[in-house]
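Appendix C: a fully annotated inverse folding record. The material below is reproduced so that readers can follow the format used throughout the book. The structure is listed first as tokens, followed by the designed sequence.
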């Protein structure tokens, strides 16, 4: 795992957190009770992405674990957002997929 890999992972986590926050705000504005799960996953994903950035930034011994868990949460969030036809959900799903992919790469490299 290179420094470039870690910086890319941090950047994608930050982008994902921002997309999730925006999606949650937009979903809340729609006042549709069917979006409750989407909003909750958006908030969980945003929080965990920020936590993962912190783990990477400080060189935690638990980077691999954080990245693997982040990938799982991002995938769940993407799966949920893909069920909705709104632009903000589609953008969020895409950011989550990119983040999950890089987190899996970093997590696997840390255990190699």
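Designed amino acids, in order:
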């Amino acid at each position: 795992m290179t420094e470039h890999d870690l910086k890319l992972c941090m950047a994608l986590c930050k982008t994902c957190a921002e997309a999730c926050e925006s999606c949650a705000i937009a979903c809340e504005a729609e006042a549709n009770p069917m979006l409750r799960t989407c909003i909750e996953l958006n908030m969980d994903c945003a929080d965990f992405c920020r936590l993962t950035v912190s783990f990477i930034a400080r060189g935690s011994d638990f980077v691999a674990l954080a990245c693997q868990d982040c990938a799982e949460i991002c995938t769940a969030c993407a799966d949920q957002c893909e069920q909705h036809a709104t632009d903000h959900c589609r953008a969020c799903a895409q950011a989550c997929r990119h983040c999950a992919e890089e987190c899996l790469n970093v997590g696997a490299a840390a255990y190699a």
